[in-house]
Amino acid sequence: MGNRNRLDLYHARCVRIGAGVLAQCALDCAATGARRVLIVTSAPIARLADELSEHLAEQGLTSTLFKGPDGEPTRADLSAALTSAQDFGADFIIGLGGGSAMDVAKLVAALFGERQTFDEVVGTGLLAGRALPLACIPTTAGTGSEVTPIAILEDEAAQLKKGVVSPFLIPDFAYLDPQLTVTMPRKVTASTGIDALTHCIEAYANRLAHPVVDSWALEGIRLIGENLEIACNEPDNLSARENMLIASHLGGMCLGPVNTAAVHALAYPMGGEFHVPHGVANSLLLPHVIRFNAEEAPERYARVAHMLGVADSGDAARDAAAGIARIEDLSAGVGIDRRLRDVGISSNALPGMAAAAMTVQRLLQNNPREMNEEQALRIYEAAL
Amino acid sequence: MGNRNRLDLYHARCVRIGAGVLAQCALDCAATGARRVLIVTSAPIARLADELSEHLAEQGLTSTLFKGPDGEPTRADLSAALTSAQDFGADFIIGLGGGSAMDVAKLVAALFGERQTFDEVVGTGLLAGRALPLACIPTTAGTGSEVTPIAILEDEAAQLKKGVVSPFLIPDFAYLDPQLTVTMPRKVTASTGIDALTHCIEAYANRLAHPVVDSWALEGIRLIGENLEIACNEPDNLSARENMLIASHLGGMCLGPVNTAAVHALAYPMGGEFHVPHGVANSLLLPHVIRFNAEEAPERYARVAHMLGVADSGDAARDAAAGIARIEDLSAGVGIDRRLRDVGISSNALPGMAAAAMTVQRLLQNNPREMNEEQALRIYEAAL
């Protein structure tokens, strides 16, 4: 984890942050010359989508909604959304929702017009371009998908998650409006918040770590440590909600240049096979993976601990351990599930999951400590 | 300096960081479909421009050089560069150099085709668009101009600097290649480095301060504190050079959303009337303005001091004072001028300068402490 890795940063051109910025989206849309806007969203937040449609109508734009699933999106959802976009004749795509809605929106904007199929672009750097302009508006504070070059779908047949990674997936516009997150259920606030924390921690303690990304990651960790409990306990606290959105955004900014590591690799099989929401899977695994990694990189995890409010004792290993305890307390305090068995996973599933996790070498190779299948199994067992 | 200001961030779409990224610029240029590239640069770095031309030629692109002045650019320089771009039929503009070359390149890319004149766009938000794609490649580590929405020229007739501020001035591509900065003279390394420090400090201690920008500013301050002396004393140290480029870049990222304050306002008349280089003017004023401001916002300046290595004593005013001493030591250690009289300014010029500084309300209104003409004069006198 030296600081001489080459770094390529791809940014959204425009990011607006603050209560009320949703209204600005319609103005930005209109300024691009767009006329017909497809809003990819999900049923629970239809009210917010209606509000956005009204803003667009005020600017003379026509819009239609595509309501995707509540849970993780599938290839079938993408196909349906693409058909909806083509039938409507969309010339601008907005993703409004959590990572699922935004990921589908990103793929619709990229694949509109059928120059490439989803199968052709699964992997890294295979997208030839993006067909339509794109804005993303998160209604959870977790994935940071509004600024990542990543979109992930479930392949129903293969029971596997498949990811597309390309700078062309990064939206043109992103809006972080805390008013859109105040109705998020406590459980979702909690698990998506821990997901954002995982992004920041895995980017900071990463073989590809870089000082620029470090500063984003550390600030994200600090903001989550100070705001997650408040956001859960006082859902209308706009300051805490905005700070959580910023933290999630900073975590997302880390994902492109550095990406995640073993927590995410081990979480993949839990999503694909057991349909555990992404944030929940990460939060269950995070302390156990850190405990495994900290032996190799105690200084990094000590710094994480300091950002979470642990005093610097001068003993990195001790501080790292205190940081793990702080993360476990934080998770418990906001009431998220603590064990794999709480989400319906039993011990006989673990060997298969460990084998599946080993296929995610794209992320495992970033991990500060090498991890083999046997070690992955031990981590699942510890988390069971 | 609460944290509930609304924030609009405009980013360069692609930023590449590391030794050797210069070569990547030609590939990115070619990928946009460009054929004829105007490189705006300055005489002392012609060798680097030749290297870039060779890379472009290898990708099948034709290029020509416009060599601007060593010092601060003027309206006449912009006119000449625009003529050069039109005559050459440029379809891509690259700024390669310090802030001067990059600022001219940004304005050429924006004003090419004569849809608007410079006079029509002086001020904030008046540019209607940018005519040509644009890349910026800094060869100093100071202005961060490769990511700012700002370009500044000297109006020779008015003896005043005039600024254009617009998101359209932010380049599409930026390249931070430490190999391009190793030949920078020590004096330039020093003054541009203190300029970057000034950007970070003025963005952090600013009425428009925001947590996202704070994290960039603080990381920039830390990197400068740890690397400026090394970059001056070991010019070939690529690690220190890269860290200084990153710090300058982070400072530049702060300038769009938050911008600077009284140091820059008071530096303006020194540039316009006395032709003191921008970085030198800032470095002469910085400790004196901080001393004035710290009475109003000691906590902010204490945090700056901590980033510069001052231990946290728990007494903000004391730490802020130690920070000022550290900045003065840093400036002295790298051998930059310390007093206004060292750059040819005498006491009888100060009242006129104080009056001129008061016209820069755009920046003065960001200052954490209100400053009137009398107080500006006292600061100039202290710096004399």
Automatic annotation (TrEMBL), chains A, B:
GO terms for molecular function: alcohol dehydrogenase (NAD+) activity; metal ion binding. Keywords: Iron, Oxidoreductase. Residues 189-384 form the Fe-containing alcohol dehydrogenase-like C-terminal domain. It comes from the Bacteria. Its cofactor is Fe cation. Residues 15-178 form the Alcohol dehydrogenase iron-type/glycerol dehydrogenase GldA domain. This is Alcohol dehydrogenase 2.
